Each structure stands twice: as structure tokens, then as C-alpha cells.
UniProtKB/TrEMBL annotation:
It comes from Rhizoctonia solani AG-3 Rhs1AP. Pfam families: GLTP (PF08718). The lineage of its organism: Eukaryota, Fungi, Dikarya, Basidiomycota, Agaricomycotina. Keywords: Transport. InterPro entries: GLTP_sf, Glycolipid_transfer_prot_dom. This is Glycolipid transfer protein HET-c2, putative.
Length: 129
């Protein structure tokens, strides 16, 4: 019987990073794992951030599916989309990274201080300028 981590499609540790950049499909698969983690908590407290992360994954994935060759890495996706009037995937990627950073900070801080303070501290450090 496997544990939750072993059941994930992709871990961030296994996302290929080459001289061309971060593999987009693998990064999105690893990001999906964070959404699955929230499902295991079964708590409404994570619903807003889970929804936000899912929406931003969808924006980046839509770009990958519509422009697969130009979006093979996150870096290529950004460069390719830069010339367009609206950079939906790039904006989604920015917010996805911020959401993932917020959650990573939250979990790391939760080990050191109590949970309510952890959420306030993480939000202050990641989302505020």
C-alpha cells in the first residue's frame, strides 16, 4: 500500500530543469499534487487557496495545450506569450508561484509557531509588497 506522497503523479523534486528551463507539463503535474494535498485535509479553510491554485494551473495548462511547442518550458511559455496583448498564462503562472510559495511558507512556519500566527505571517511575507 502506498502513502499519499507516493501516489502523486509528480513531485517537485522530479520536475526536469534543463538549460532551457523548467518543464511545464511536469511542473503542472507537481502543482496538481498540492491541490490533492488540500483534499486530504478536508478543511474549508484551504478552499480559497485551493481554488486559486487550480484556476492558475488551468490557465497555464490551457496555454501549454494550445501552444505545446512554444510552451515546453515555463521560460519559453513566458517569452512566447510576451508578444501578445494579454498574457493570461504568464499572469496565471505568477499567481500560481505566489500561491505555492505562500503554502510552503505556511507549512514551514506552522512547525515553529501556532497555526493562526503562521497564516498571518505567511500572508504578510508572501502577498504583501
Amino acid at each position: 500500500m502506498s502513502n499519499f506522497i507516493q501516489s502523486l503523479k509528480k513531485s517537485f523534486v522530479d520536475v526536469p530543469v534543463t538549460e532551457d528551463g523548467v518543464d511545464t507539463a511536469s511542473f503542472l503535474d507537481a502543482s496538481d499534487g498540492v491541490v490533492e494535498l488540500f483534499n486530504h485535509f478536508n478543511s474549508a479553510a484551504f478552499t480559497p487557496v485551493q481554488s486559486d491554485i487550480k484556476g492558475n494551473i488551468a490557465k497555464v495548462r490551457a496555454r501549454l495545450e494550445s501552444h505545446p511547442t512554444e510552451s515546453v518550458t515555463l521560460e519559453k511559455l513566458i517569452v512566447n506569450e510576451k508578444s501578445e496583448k494579454k498574457q493570461t498564462a504568464t499572469e496565471g503562472l505568477m499567481w500560481l508561484l505566489r500561491g505555492l510559495s505562500l503554502q510552503a511558507r505556511l507549512f514551514n512556519t506552522a512547525r515553529q509557531i501556532n497555526l493562526p500566527n503562521s497564516r498571518k505571517d505567511s500572508t504578510r511575507r508572501i502577498l504583501r509588497p
